[in-house]
Amino acid sequence: MSGNSLLAAPLAGRKSLHDLRRQLAGPLVENVASGTTAVSAAVLHENADFYRDAARYADEQRTFFRQMPVVACLSSELPEPGSFKTFDEAGLPIVLSRGKDGQVRAFLNICPHRASRIVREEQGKASRFTCRFHGWTFDCTGKALGIPGADLFGDPEEIDPYRNLIACPVEERHGLVFVLADPEGTMDLDAHLAGLEHDIEFIGLASAEIVHADRLSVDANWKYGLDTFFETYHLNALHFETFKGLFSPICVFDTFGPHHRYTFAPLGIEGWVGMAPEEWPVDAIPLQYFLFPNTIISVGSTSSTGLTVNIHRIFPSSAGHFTSSLSFCAIGGLASPEHREEVERAYAVARAALVDEDYSVAAEAHAGLASLPEGTRLPVGRQEIGVWNFHHNVARLLGTGEGSDG
Ligand code: FES
Ligand SMILES: [Fe+2]
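A: This is the predicted complex of the input protein with fe (ii) ion.
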């Protein structure tokens, strides 16, 4: 892949977001100087079925959302012992709870007695959960505290296997809570993060205060929704007005397992070409991370500092519908009225771009895709490198071997 970054420096050398941006600035300025950008190895001729096939969707839902760790929430959404939050978007009702010991646990939000939903509020604080159907009560570790009429369930050992909540693997890392929506599964987060954990740590999400949270409902395929984040080719057409003055389509692209990092060129970067590298204002470089299968973390793409971070998570509910969950965060909390203004502005710009532009295109394209004849293929250009990379990973991990180059 010409024009891409070939970072050789050891991760231990990157002490902070600033240092990381300084390392990435070199390859970025080289691309600017040579008038090139990150491009994929080949043109992708994607089958229209990639976005519309229901059987494929069922495979994706199981493989990516039930068998891979997904970000259920930010640590700051479970701020203290007793905080809880429900999470249904991975396709299984789950409740997350922070215990007295500070540890986050995840349970199926399904009563072990007769499957009623136990926690019905979206979030809150509680030291115990009581099922409204017959009143079974559980503590924050999932242990049954009380079973009314327990003696009529037979010998105590007969009810023993059924008395406690069913746990799912969960791990809190770098300010994010990762869940595996499979009680039988095991989660190896280090293997999953594939080296991206260093960057995520640098972002500082552990101190993130969510200033705006929102959910958008979109009639399109979840992968089409994500694809709109994965290329800068549409920046000067679709977002000509909205993102004008934020960054240019020139970029550097790096991969970490199925995840990737986009390094964007701030506007005016042409001026850096003749400057000494020490003079480059590297903190203006926007970074965008994709955490497979569905999470985008944007640092500085809608604001000029690294203190406003946008998190987008896309959860499918069918081949033709997804929910996009937005969290606009102030790192370290809202420090000043100016910082609040910056987050407000970032939120307004990004929400408008998503609703009126990216997701509006995605929904129209989904209607178009439904009408195309079987076997139709769509060309993804080499400058749409994130789309190429994502589609190849989807095919690789599903074992479908699709994604036709050339
Ligand atoms: S279903 Fe929950 S107590 Fe009966
Ligand atoms: Fe976009």
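Residues 111, 113-114, 116, 131, 133-136 surround FE2/S2 (inorganic) cluster (ligand 1) (CB under 6 Å). The longest strand covers residues 208-218.
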